[in-house]
Amino acid sequence: MASIVLTILLPFAVIAYTQHYYQVFLFILICMGAILGFLLFNINPAHVFMGDTGSHSLGGLLAGLAFVTKTEILFILMGGVVFIETLTAIIQLISMKLRKKRVFLMTPIHHTFKLMGWLETKIVKMFWLINFSLSFLSILLLF
């Protein structure tokens, strides 16, 4: 989660700087530094766990930044991996309620990849690369 948030904060930093929101830009840089510090202790295998409090705080931070920078729609693209993870869980829940059948082996989707034999490090790298690409695309679309 933290590495994905880091890739989402990159375009927010560019947007804040180009829109002359320098205090927001500085705040984003501070948050990125804190996340990098957290990630130093979580190179596989993880030693410190964020938990719900940390992940919900980061989600609130990202949502707040989307409103402050007026990029609510673009935020969906920037946070593509997070939205896909959530969407797969919603699809699975609706399918189970209506059809009593699973669409995925397990949700969120990263659990399906683990059941298929993928290593956790491979999943994290793949998600990070996808989200970094989506974040870069969002910057290109904005300018």
Structural account:
With 143 residues, this protein is mainly α. The protein has one domain. Helices cover 77% and strands 0% of the residues. The protein has helices at residues 2-18, 22-40, 51-68, 72-78, 80-98, 109-115, 120-142. The longest helix is centred in the C-terminal third of the chain and has 23 residues, at 120-142. The model has no long low-confidence stretch (mean pLDDT 93).
The helix/strand order is: HHHHHHH
Mean pLDDT: 93
Structural class by secondary-structure content: mainly alpha
For the largest beta-sheet, the strand count, sense and barrel status come to: none
Low-confidence stretches: none
Pfam family, one: Glycos_transf_4
GO cellular component, one term: plasma membrane
Membrane topology: Multi-pass membrane protein
Organism: Schinkia azotoformans LMG 9581
List the keywords.
143 residues, mainly alpha, 7 helices, 77% helix, 0% strand, Phospho-N-acetylmuramoyl-pentapeptide-transferase, transferase
Brief digest:
This protein is mainly alpha-helical and about 140 residues long. The protein is built from 7 helices and no strands.
Secondary structure layout plus pairing:
Layout: H1 2-18, H2 22-40, H3 51-68, H4 72-78, H5 80-98, H6 109-115, H7 120-142
